[in-house]
Amino acid sequence: WDSVSCYDSARIIFEYLIKESPEHYLGYLGKGLLLTERGRKDADKNRPFRHWMDSADSYYASAMQFSPENAAVFYYRGRSQFFTNEDSVNLRAIAYLDTA
User: What does pTM read for this prediction?
Assistant: First the structure.
C-alpha cells in the first residue's frame, strides 16, 4: 500500500470491473476493500481517514445490493466498520461480521 502505482493499478482494475459489469458485486467489493485499506493507512499516520471509510461503505452497500447473501461482502463491510470505530462497540460491525 506504500506504492502509489500499486494503489492506482488496483483502483483502475476495480473501476473497470464496475464499468464493464455494473450489476456484479466484485468491482464494488474490491473498491470498498481498497478504500478501507487506504483509510487504515491514513489512520495509522494520524491523518483524517473517515472520508475513505465512508466511501468504502458506500461501495460495500452496492456490493450487497448485487450479492445480498455473499459472506465476503458482509465480512469486509463489518471489518471496515470495525476499523472506522476501533475504540467503541460498533453494532453495525458486529451485525455484519455475525451475518458473515
Answer: 0.90
C-alpha cell at 72: 465476503
Cell, residue 17: 470491473
Tell me: the pLDDT tens digits for 19-57? 999 999 999 999 999 999 999 999 999 999 999 999 999
3 state SS for the chain: CCCHHHHHHHHHHHHHHHHHCCCCHHHHHHHHHHHHHHHHHHHHCCCCCHHHHHHHHHHHHHHHHHCCCCHHHHHHHHHHHHHHCCCCCCHHHHHHHHHC
Q: Which three three-digit cell numbers place residue 40? A: 487504515
* Distance in angstroms (rounded) separating the CA atoms of residues 69 and 67: 6
Cα 80 to Cα 10, 56, 88, 93: the distances in Å are: 18, 8, 14, 8
Q: Are the CB atoms for 66 and 60 separated by under 8 Å?
A: no
